[in-house]
Amino acid sequence: QVQVMESGGGLVQPGGSLRLSCVASGSDIASIAAMRWYRRAPGRAPEEEREWVASIDSRGRTTIANSLKGRFTVARDNAETTVSLQMNSLKPEDTAVYYCNAVTWKSSNEKQYWGQGTPVTVSE
């Protein structure tokens, strides 16, 4: 089992920056193959897919959604199971609940664990 917790959301003005953190814990953290960030904009139904934002795998390789490159970066912090999402030049359309997702590979089975999300509001 893995527990995932996000933090760092809040209200920021357009053009500002925000840094989100995600910490994974639990008995299966050694099996984490990747950690990902997703977001869901306000007004979207819970059953709608979340928008993928960024990923970092166990080797530290990162990928960012094309539309966010140049503004968002993902990195691993000092601990292997702590990742951050640095968001710069924020726009109102970046307003969303941001979710962290941990993917584990164990005995050829993939499992995904989600956090509760942290809200980000970009507004004057």
Mean pLDDT: 94
Kindly provide the radius of gyration, computed on alpha-carbon positions and rounded to a whole number of angstroms. 14 Å
In the predicted model, the low-confidence regions spanning at least 5 consecutive residues are none
In N-to-C order, the SSE pattern is EEEEEEEEEEE
Task: Report the sheet-strand fraction.
Answer: over 45%
Q: Count up the helices.
A: 0
Query: How many individual β-strands?
Result: 11
Distance between the termini: 40 Å
Largest sheet: 7 strands, mixed
User: What is the overall shape?
Assistant: globular
Work out the helicity level.
under 10%
Topology:
Blueprint: E1 3-7, E2 10-12, E3 18-25, E4 32-40, E5 51-57, E6 62-64, E7 72-76, E8 82-87, E9 96-106, E10 109-114, E11 118-122
Parallel strand pairs: 2-11
Antiparallel strand pairs: 1-3, 3-8, 4-5, 4-9, 5-6, 7-8, 9-10, 9-11
Task: Provide an overview of this structure.
There is one protein chain. The chain is mainly β and 124 residues long. The protein is 0% helix and 55% strand. It is built from no helices and 11 strands. Strands 2, 4, 5, 6, 9, 10 and 11 form a 7-stranded mixed sheet that branches. It starts with a strand and ends with a strand. 27% of the residues are buried.
Quick structural gist:
The protein is an all-beta fold and 124 residues long. The chain has strands at 3-7, 10-12, 18-25, 32-40, 51-57, 62-64, 72-76, 82-87, 96-106, 109-114, 118-122.
